[in-house]
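S.,

As promised, the flavin mononucleotide run. Input:
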Amino acid sequence: MHLTLAITGASGAVFGREALRALEADERVARVHFVASENALRVLAEELGVSGRNDLVEKLLGTAPAKTIQHSDADIGAAIASGSHPSNGMIVLPCSMGTLAAIAHGLADSLIARAADVTLKEGRPLLLCLRETPFNRIHLRNMTLAAEAGATIFPCIPAFYNHPVDSDEMARQFVFRVLAHIGLAQPGAYVWKEEP
Ligand SMILES: Cc1cc2nc3c(=O)[nH]c(=O)nc-3n(C[C@H](O)[C@H](O)[C@H](O)COP(=O)(O)O)c2cc1C
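Predicted complex:
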């Protein structure tokens, strides 16, 4: 699979890091296109103590990436900005209300918004893992608009019935649900009442 992972300036940078790690480790994934918005950099520094721009993927993985290419959010000429480039879908995790608005209204003025726009026009899976609370009516309307255009609204709402031992485990299990939704069921994913 060829997938795009975008991280935006919503809280929940740990979700993005866990998604990146899982995609890098997954043998079914050949290529990951990674984009962090300018505001994601601020939240990454705030929440994970990870700063910098150019070697962000390596910092998040803790090792050099084998299959992940990082693009600048300003680079609207990157491969993923065109529908001619093969892709199996895009995950925005975490997705801010600002990026949701841009996608819902087709602004396409950043690489993340453009790649999402392309994903929708090509009828490919687009998962928007939103994080905000509470929602105002603009958020709710934008969610409906994006869903009507084909996006899956997949809010960052982790489960508790799997008894996560810490926030990293909680984030990892949430990410496993996201990846299962896009066809990448993960080993180690909690399954409710799994058959022996
Ligand atoms: C520490 C921090 C946490 C934030 N958390 C959220 C959040 O959970 N949801 C959200 O929509 N915006 C959040 N924001 C605000 C966004 O970063 C801001 O609206 C930004 O313009 C989003 O830009 P982007 O979508 O291009 O990344 C947060 C900002 C900071 C600094």
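The chain has a mean pLDDT of 96. The first strand starts at residue 2 and ends at 7.

- D.
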